[in-house]
Amino acid sequence: MATTVTASSRRRAALAKRVEKIVNTTPVSDIHTHLYDPAFRGLLLWGIDDLLTYHYLVAETFRYFDLPFEKFWSLSKTQQADLIWEALFVQHSPISEACGGVLTTLNLLGLDVKKRDLPALRRWFAKQNPEKHVTRCLELAGVDRICMTNSPFDDVERPLWERGFQRDERFVAALRIDPLLLDWPGAAPRLAQWEYDVGAGLSDPVVGEVRRFLADWSKRIGAKYLMVSLPPDFKFPEQNNCAQLMEKAVLPHCREFGLPLALMLGVKRAVNPQLRLAGDGVGRSDPQALQNLCAGFPENKFLATVLSRENQHELCVLARKFRNLHVFGCWWFTNVPLVAEEMTRMRLELLGLSVTPQHSDARVLDQLVYKWSHFREILSRALTDKYVDLSRAGWEPTAAEIKRDAKNLLGGAFERFCRGERPAPGQVRP
Ligand code: HDL
Ligand code: ZN
């Protein structure tokens, strides 16, 4: 018995090594981030102080001190980073995912973290060339395509798109439309200001102008998909502006342009407004709304991720029912090893390879390095276990098949879903 166990554990170890090597060398399409083309200059965050003042760490830091929120916000970024470093890395071990991620990134950048020398870290980053640092982080993370989050309602970002700039082809645009759907009374006057003939109502001519707005911006940025984050109580169909605009303007626009609509469900905005970007929370969504959309609009393609751990299984089962639904990412509060591992295994076991198990949601360039390093470990473990299960039935995956599967999961399935391709019967995709 001992001999058999040793032989099978040796086989597993050999397979694990092969899978890990393939997963680690398969380039990733990161399908949702808050990073920006370097042409956006200051909007692209990078370096140690941006890493430390990431809103995940801000939220965690406030748990360790009674500093008034407004006092913290009045500090400079460096002063905020000093407080965060002291609280989360010096006075306590940085064991949370967001803190550990900072150390993974610094370590993979070749920096010595055991000295706990923040000034020395700052000196290193201060010497980096921004353009070269972009390439270094992408190469270290193994990411060759980044989807941005682009909003015409962002007053800093909009003028840059209106002026036009030389695109970095590694950065792909996605059209974010939360204000349009979630705050129509606030969005309508802005569209009117941009010379779209809209009043507050949703008459046919107004809907036509909203579609012109969506068409103009989809073309201007070369949108890969449209996206919106939605509250836990999102219902569809519904007699409200959100559902009406989605049905009458957004979905027809997506069909006309052949673009997926990404629905990010379950976010409770401003649960604690004093935390600003760090103040959002999570709520359980009603999967019926997504079911109604997928069933009611079979010609539309829906990308979906949900924020509540409790919704993950329902989302996978829904994707089994609707081939126009593509599940993606361990979003935000689910992007911690315990939950991400559970979600990834659930998805492989319920959806096979027709899923995009992760996106980074990175807000700081350097985060790509840790977010993809941590997830690749999870994916390699889960994939290896699935291949071991297959090998027990005599099915040994070839290296080419493992490469094909990894490519699928790290962006290939997403690209095919966006193109709307489905292999003809008997045609095996590369
Ligand atoms: O709405 C979103 O796209 C979320 O990802 C929020 O931006 C959130 O603040 C975040 O960064 N999550 O990781
Ligand atoms: Zn996001």
What percent of residues are in strands? 5-15%
Radius of gyration, CA atoms, in whole angstroms: 23 Å
Helix percentage range: 40-55%
Please tally the β strands and state the result.
10
Uncertain runs are none
Structural class: alpha/beta
Order of helices and strands: HEHHHHHHHEHEEHHHEHEEEHEHEHHH
The spatial strand order of the largest sheet comes to 4-5-6-9-10
From the 3D structure, determine the CATH topology of the largest domain.
TIM Barrel
Average pLDDT confidence is 96
In angstroms, what separates the terminal alpha carbons? 41 Å
Q: Name every ligand kind in the structure.
A: D-arabinohydroxamic acid, zinc ion
The CATH class assignment of the largest domain is Alpha Beta
* Tally of alpha and pi helices: 18
Report the CATH superfamily of the largest domain: Metal-dependent hydrolases
Q: How many discrete domains?
A: 2
Architecture of the largest domain in CATH?
A: Alpha-Beta Barrel
